[in-house]
Amino acid sequence: MHSIASKSHEPLWVYPEKNPTLFQSIVSEFNIHPVTAQVLISRGFKTLEEIHEYLYAKLPNLYDPDLFPDMDKAVERIVSAIHKKQSILIYGDNDVDGMTAAALLTDFLRTIGADVHFDIPNRSSLKKSLIGDALQFALKRNCALMITVDCGITAAKEIEEVVKHGIDVIVTDHHEPTSKIPLCIATLNPKLINSTYPNRELTGVGVAFKLAHAITNYLIEEEEISPTKIDLKNYLDLVALGTIADMGALKGENRILVRYGLKQMRKMKRMGLAKLFQISEMQQGELTPVDIASKVAPRLNSLGRIADPIKGVQLLLVQGSDEAEALAKELDLHNLERQKIERAASDDIEEFIFQHPEVLLEKAIILSSEKWHPGIIAIISARIAKQYNRPTLIISIEQGIGKGSIRTIPEFPLLPILKQNEELLINYGGHDYAAGLTIKEENIPIFRQRFIEAAERVLKDQDVIPKLYLDAKIHFNELTFDFMESLSLLEPFGNENPHPILYCDAMQIWPPKVVGKYHLKLFLEQGDRMLEGIAFGLADRKDQIRRKNILLQIAFTPHINLFLNKASIQLQIKDFQIPAQKPS
What we know:
584 residues; alpha/beta; 5-stranded parallel β-sheet; 5-stranded mixed β-sheet; 18 helices; 18 strands; 21% strand; globular
């Protein structure tokens, strides 16, 4: 099999910007390591105030939830439902962001005495109307109020139908609105055109948390509950999990929510999550956004992709140890099944690209098939978009209807092109860098043509060359545990706040070793210090550096490696160049 993953594409190195005046100010003002100061400059910080806020922001720095225009209406209607003992339905999207948001609001509203049900659509079937299912659920249980979480902003028509049946609706979402906004009691979405909420990057679970915060404030002010009844910090583990899984930008308010959410997670208060961490082989001290995104989120997401996502909410709410363990094991089995389905589709796509290399001559990749399960196309489109640095649309076709998942690069936002072609689509939603669509099979060729024409028009050749953004130059003798401590000020690392990538020249003193088929182990020396590096996925470049005593320029992130209780600094090599061969 021709593994796309084994074909590493050498990226263009983008060197850091220098600002000597700001650099000196940062070092003296914050008393931090000069390399960390340069990382902050490379990340685009322009003032000491911005840096102070980034480094030291705490929970009291979160924005007031009442900055959402409709928040007062939403709070009023929910409190009224509690007073009148009306049943409330929480209806969430079927990914981790939706599951955590549904679990958060269900748990919170039950704590303050509401009668709450929750429902999550099963999207592995290609139904056109998902909120239609929720309506049946609400009618069966006599719900007077439906609150959508992480969905609903693009479902104006379906919500109109719910309202006709005498059920009030509050929409909480973070996706980009399309032309028609749902008519309902309140719409909480930081991306609405008239929104006065300062953080556009809030995720679905973030919006749900803000609603819980506003209700708490109201009930305390009205003296309906005591200030000690609700500790909102208890919900931050769910906020962190959903934000990380949904690739929420880890800057500003999101960074505060995730930083404190990770602290809450480490307390292991949620039985289901604790069992899920155990089954994912994650230790209490190892709960980083990278681990959560790669080990925990896929297990929960597998439910929304190939099984029943309602089990995800149940796992996040479960109290009993045995039930929690049974659910965690079930999730693990679904994840193995999802991996199998995904591998088959990936192999199929890799083979197609290998047989049709002309696909890569275009500035966007659009592939469709009846063979691929609709639940795994999002993972594959994200992987291919990252690999080839191009907008990528993968479509799964079932009974003449295509369900598509699109991922893109910063230079090519998606919503304008989707809006221009909405007459070809049954529906679409998402945001500029990740979106989904449903389309009739006969419309795929014309949509493909228009999408690729738009990509050719907008993107330059250099836009589709993969790039490696370097943060700072460093010397081996600066790679100390004190420096690692200084770097940890920038945590948590994740989307839009990635691990800093450092670079330097080093001598390869021994030929590299292939580890686990795809990776290279490098033995590097600079001055009198020797460090080991691991280059994930770069085994196919071994021949370039098979001799010893070669001078290399390396780009890497430093990590503390614990082996037999002994800590050492190891380099995770992102790329290497032989300076003499470096393009000018």
